[in-house]
Amino acid sequence: MNILYQSTRGGEKDVTASQAILKGLAQDGGLFMPTEIPKLDKTLGELAKKSYQETAYEVMKLFLTDFTEEELKQCINCAYDHKFDTEVIAPLIKADGAYYLELFHGSTIAFKDMALSILPHLMTTAAKKNHVDQEIVILTATSGDTGKAAMAGFADVPGTRIIVFYPKDGVSSIQKLQMVTQKGDNTAVVAIRGNFDDAQTGVKKIFADKEFGQELAKKGFVLSSANSINIGRLIPQIVYYVYAYGQLLKNGEISDGEKIHVTVPTGNFGNILAAYFAKQMGVPIDKLICASNDNKVLYDFFSTGTYDKKRDFLLTISPSMDILISSNLERLIYLSTDCCPQKTGELMADLAEKGAYTVSEDMRQRMADFAGGFATQQEDKDAIRRLYENTGYVMDTHTGVASAVYQKYKADSGDETKTVIASTASPYKFARSVMEAIGQGELPEDEFALIDKLSEVSGVEIPKAVEEIRCAVARHARECGIQRMKGTVGEILGL
């Protein structure tokens, strides 16, 4: 079956997978969606016997139908290799009655590695397939993890450049150090005086600026994105939910066909949307529990049917979730309108112009697979401490939100369905908040002395990604206001 892609807002149709990956964002500002979500063509029992790489091929071949088997397997094998510190790529750890899907064993110790390790290979392959001779400029906004993972993936990849914007005061110390010390002659990092939503909106405006696009084309550049708005980011994320179910089945934790829940700490909505795609493909997932922090715009949406970004933006100890505009929700909205681009476009226009939109009751029924929940910062800390005291397992502040929300869901519903919790980052990425949560008394001021102490407490070896930045030299010091983002891109590219 040949799968094509179209914009959620109707402006582009009959786009191949490779073209959608290259474009990143549709010309009308919409997001690319497949004309249909394909069904798995292997049984769950067959998939349970496969490695992560083999599972990736079985999932991705169904979506990326203009890639040859050789091309796709080459991309997969280049991505999921020694960069990961565990052979299984995504271990599933049982702790205190839930299954933690560890997605942080890649080169930047966050779940973004799972997709951003393969995106550069997909993109350069797509460029060759489409005879693109321009230099691809990856333009990305980050709330802390995407930026580093994207730069690590694209660093010194021929024919590409990458420019990352991050909120100056909205990331952890380790996240900032990871970005500003990034090597690669084709990498650039810019701190903006604003929050993540400002960065994301600014990037989208640059993509929508046709005159700027023409100016770039004259100089031999074409823009693309490594954010989860790129379908090439979303499809690889489906893989680990399929793989997790297979591992539960292989290990005898569930019976074939038994339904599970999935709980995901959610900001931009891409990670949990990937789980929804896995369900549509045939994985027996029942509830998708969408876990929010104090910026609970998604919790309020699933509770009321109204998405309202008109609220204070809060900085929390789970900064990658400090988001009020969840871009990937547009894809779910599109599906809930029965793939009506006109209705989707109207709702997105309401969000842009009025700061809010309300979906119909019929649309809400189509989204009934999702359950919203949120955890305060104190509840997040309590969940981290409780799991550590009960089991010795240490999780980061984003996984802590998911764990707290799951525990509340289970207590309120009495639902004992086996549940996979997406563990999205290493605790070392948010060491201070984690150490404060588990109650280790007076903590050292020095970030790396703190990391050494976390290693003692957790018994987990300090990841290579953290050791690498202990003595690394800062290479990036650019900073700009929100209105200067386009000008800064021009300066970096020498326009």
Describe the structure.
- The chain has a domain of 248 residues: Rossmann fold (3-Layer(aba) Sandwich).
- Helix 4 runs antiparallel to helix 6.
- The protein is globular, with a radius of gyration of 21 Å.
- The mean pLDDT is 96.
- Helix content is 45%, strand content 15%.
- The protein is α/β, with parallel strands linked by helices and 495 residues long.
- The strands form four sheets. It has a six-stranded mixed sheet with strand order 3-4-14-9-10-13, with helices on both faces. Strands 8-5-6-7-15 form a five-stranded parallel sheet, sandwiched between helices.
- It is built from 22 helices and 15 strands.
Labels describing this entry:
globular; Rossmann fold; 6-stranded mixed sheet; alpha/beta; 495 residues; 5-stranded parallel sheet
